[in-house]
Design a protein that fits this description.
The complex is a heterotetramer, with two copies of chain A (about 80 residues) and two copies of chain B (about 150 residues).
Chain A lengths: L1 E5 L2 H7 L3 E5 L6 H11 L15 E3 L2 E2 L12 E3 L7
Parallel strand pairs in A: 1-5
Antiparallel strand pairs in A: 1-2, 3-4, 3-5
Chain B lengths: L1 E7 L4 H8 L3 H8 L6 E8 L3 E4 L5 E12 L3 H17 L3 E12 L3 E9 L2 H18 L2 E7 L2
Parallel strand pairs in B: 1-5
Antiparallel strand pairs in B: 2-6, 3-4, 4-5, 4-7, 5-6
The chains are: A alpha+beta (about 80), B alpha+beta (about 150).
């Protein structure tokens, strides 16, 4: 299946878009989506922590690495934030 | 009282007064109940000189910062953080305001005001809140360079 | 900018605005020069319940605190402390105001406002100032008990 | 000679006065005045630290233990302060 991932901050400015798509097996885990981002979007790498420590939000909550992504979930890559 | 808001543009005293108006009675009651021994208010201000990560981290002049928020996760994250910090440090009150969008040099992008029985709680709470804000709340900033 | 004042009675926003009026231009210049990234403002407020050292340290209800200062040593000590903390922590500005005389429950007896390039300096400066205030500046307080 | 010492805070409230007098040798040091306060004003003891760690201000500045007091100096006992 395809998963659309929202991107922000330096990742988004660098890629000049606010979302990217990755091709993954059906019902992928968060960890699998992070690995696919690394493999399929090398231009994002500068903004990506190693897949094991990367963070996705699924439906606006931080998700554990083993959480499964379901079709229709809103998936967002939460790179290094910088509020304040 | 726990209040967390994301507001478009710079935080001005006038804007803040308006944003807090709905809570003024609650705040007045609290201020006079005699349990508060210390208040601490932090303001984050946009500085002119910032390091440019795309130019060998040399300092360059800014016009402004553009704050990008992932809504509604940022708003909910700010609220959850405020509630968590209030509980952890025994605060009587916490107000956190953060800008979304463009904030010019010298303008305020972040306000945190806490009240507690003693000063140590307020100092610990402000340090703790800002550390965790910079880790967990999905807000990004982008430099708008001068020239 | 370094400013330290001892003021009769509670510190109110109106009183403070008047006390700082003479320095308003200086402050405005500073606020817009782009070197300030953080401001931190502490207010000490009189709480209702205090331990009574003459009654086995049990908590009793206060009406007010009476602040006694040894003048002009207290004024000079407050100024010297402000200058020393500003230098030690690289502050761009420090304003310290302290009450003399009676301050009621819920009223403000002490204001400290600092500005610096980064938040860590402001947090360290406020903690440092208050610790040293409570050691070295000749100001004493006396409880005015209720009933 | 006699030295008049200003007192404040709990010391002053307890003694119900804002100054006490001690009898000391001529040109006493700060340390000698502190010791005389201990010996000659037992009612102040609760507010006094041990003489070695007590603090006098002489002419509105904290004074070292070996500083000599001269006639006309303003001497003040700076007991535990409590601003803020």
């Amino acid at each position: 299946m395809q998963v659309e991932v929202l991107i922000f901050g330096a990742a988004s400015f660098g890629a000049k878009t606010d979302r990217v798509t990755v091709e993954v097996s059906a019902a992928p885990t968060v960890r699998e989506v992070l690995a696919a981002l690394h493999a399929q979007h090398p231009a994002l790498k500068f903004a990506l922590p190693p897949p094991a420590s990367g963070r996705l939000a699924v439906n606006h909550s931080f998700a554990r690495g083993d959480q499964a992504i379901r079709p229709g979930d809103e998936v967002a890559l939460i790179t290094l934030v910088g509020g304040g | 009282m726990v209040l967390a808001l994301i507001i478009d543009g710079p935080l001005t005293p006038e804007f803040e007064a308006r944003a807090l108006l709905a809570h003024a009675d609650q705040w007045r009651l609290l201020a006079h109940d005699g349990t508060i021994g210390a208040t601490l208010r932090f303001e984050g201000v946009v500085r002119r000189a910032e390091r440019d990560p795309e130019a060998a981290d040399v300092e360059r002049d800014l016009l402004a910062l553009d704050y990008q928020t992932y809504d509604p996760m940022a708003q909910r994250g700010l609220e959850a953080l405020a509630a968590s910090v209030a509980e952890r440090h025994g605060l009587r009150s916490i107000v956190a305001l953060h800008s979304r969008g463009r904030v010019g040099v010298g303008e305020v992008s972040f306000v945190l005001e806490v009240a507690a029985p003693h000063r140590v709680e307020t100092l610990a709470a402000v340090a703790d809140f800002i550390d965790r804000l910079k880790q967990d709340v999905p807000i990004w900033k982008r430099a708008v360079w001068a020239g």
